[in-house]
Amino acid sequence: MDCALKCVALLVLLGCAFSKISASLVKDDYEHCKNTVNKWASSSPDLEVKEEKHRLRDLLFFLHVPRTGGRTYFHCFLRKLYSSSLECPRSYDKLRFDPSKHNCRLLVTHDDYSMMSRLPAEKTSVVTILRNPIDRVFSTYEFSIEVAARFLVHPNLTSVARMAGRLRSKQGGVSTLDIWPWKYLVPWMREDLFARRDARELQGLYSRSNDSYNMEDTVMPLHEYINDPIARDIIHNGATFQIAGLTNNSYLAEAHEVRRCVLKHQTLGEYVLEVAKKRLDNMLYVGLTEDHRESATMFANVVGAQVISQKIASNYSKNPEDNDISEESSSPEYHQNSSTDQNASKISAAQIINAKNEHMTVGRLMEAYETCISSLRRTQKQRRTASLKRISPANFSKEARLDVPEVVLQQIKSLNILDMELYRYAQSSFSKQHKQMLRQLKLQEKDIKLDDPYSAASRNFLLFAISIILLLLFIGLFVKRRRTLKLKL
Ligand SMILES: *[C@@H]1O[C@H](CO)[C@@H](O)[C@H](O)[C@H]1NC(C)=O
Ligand SMILES: *[C@@H]1O[C@H](CO)[C@@H](O)[C@H](O)[C@H]1NC(C)=O
Ligand SMILES: *[C@@H]1O[C@H](CO)[C@@H](O)[C@H](O)[C@H]1NC(C)=O
Ligand SMILES: *[C@@H]1O[C@H](CO)[C@@H](O)[C@H](O)[C@H]1NC(C)=O
Ligand SMILES: *[C@@H]1O[C@H](CO)[C@@H](O)[C@H](O)[C@H]1NC(C)=O
Ligand SMILES: *[C@@H]1O[C@H](CO)[C@@H](O)[C@H](O)[C@H]1NC(C)=O
Ligand SMILES: *[C@@H]1O[C@H](CO)[C@@H](O)[C@H](O)[C@H]1NC(C)=O
Fold first, then answer.
1. Which of 246, 265, 345, 372 could form an S-S bond across to 241 if both were Cys, CB 3.0 to 4.6 Å?
2. What three-state secondary structure class fits 284?
3. Average pLDDT score over residue span 271-294
């Protein structure tokens, strides 16, 4: 009895001590984390506003946040401005990227801002595009499933692996599966799709759900996807982390500890956000996926115009073969094996040749962009439809998104607090910069009017007319004077 009491007392004491220790551990970790994050934030480069940030430097670094539509900028703007010989080799593929080796002028990549440590920072201009975080999460979910579903032609994963090995040794190109973050997201979804298919076949279960975002027997439901540790690792707040240089793909050694701290202690996110905002302030251009027309116009006028005046816009290759090769090897061409795909690259290669043969201007660039984007969208849509057929009856569309419960949307928002704030910030900077651009374009128009030959002619005519009138007046005066003189005489 006595002993039992003593034991209980001892246990309580021990429990107390233990919880105190763990509380102090948590506190220590917080202190440690705060120091780590603070140190990182204050030592981050590029925090002062740069003087000439609106001037294009030698190297253009397109920081491509996944699922923001950067691929259309790459194909429909940048490829028309830069010949592929000016593109940094293996842009999208960190493992094989080596900027020191080549004197390249264009780098387009999903790698994060820490890439700057490998680049001549003084000679580099950075551009990026941001998107509403909720749409970005939806799009990431849909795209990782879309790409994974292409593999469902195979009977099982062993067969997928064998095929992948053969393909890799044959092509040596960059595929979606080499590119961060798809190299994690696609295999994850691929395994998941095969497991669900096997389970369906075993149990003969079929979906009773009509909500494509919650169709458990076919694909991983959205709410499950967004709560997985993998999604927390690489999707949520992804834009902020990428711009801060803190993705789990970072070059920076301390990035991983900073990430761990920020994921664990939410309040430390503020530091990361501040760094990301300052980086945006220093970029040459920040577009918005939602304001697609305005963003494209601004890109053409801010970035395009300067690339053109740098006189590196290429008269590039008359040889179709060259363009085909570059299309295959250095673009983030998402690998698949279908005839639509082959048609797609043929179309865009042909357009590239056409555009590059002309003498480029901002107006022509916009025209080429419009044509290019509509054909790119068409082939993307075909590819998507073909792929999603394999997971029917699940089908992702704008209408189906409307059925996603509010709770899930709220959850996405709260998982992406940093990105939500960064996006708001980018929106307000964008509208300022856009207004400024419109003002400048108007001024330029006025200049052109003053300079144009028609108004110059009319100015000359006016001068001519005035001098004639003056001359007539003078003659009139002279004649009158002579008359008065005559009269006097
Ligand atoms: C996977 O598919 C291949 C090709 O159909 C077949 O030969 C192999 O036995 C399958 N493996 C398993 C583990 O089912
Ligand atoms: C799914 O079914 C519910 C009723 O069961 C209906 O209200 C809803 O519109 C359907 N959604 C779709 C995408 O068909
Ligand atoms: C990055 O995230 C993926 C997915 O969670 C994980 O498999 C991988 O190991 C991570 N890499 C690093 C360097 O943390
Ligand atoms: C384009 O071609 C012309 C004539 O072949 C050449 O003079 C010019 O330097 C070229 N421009 C570029 C950017 O290569
Ligand atoms: C593409 O698919 C066809 C069958 O549709 C197959 O015969 C061919 O080997 C595949 N090629 C590659 C490179 O996977
Ligand atoms: C690809 O192009 C060929 C002709 O160029 C056409 O016959 C074929 O239907 C196209 N395939 C797809 C899937 O669009
Ligand atoms: C999926 O939806 C799209 C557009 O909403 C439609 O074009 C496509 O045919 C649908 N696919 C299937 C398999 O129902």
1. 246
2. coil
3. 96
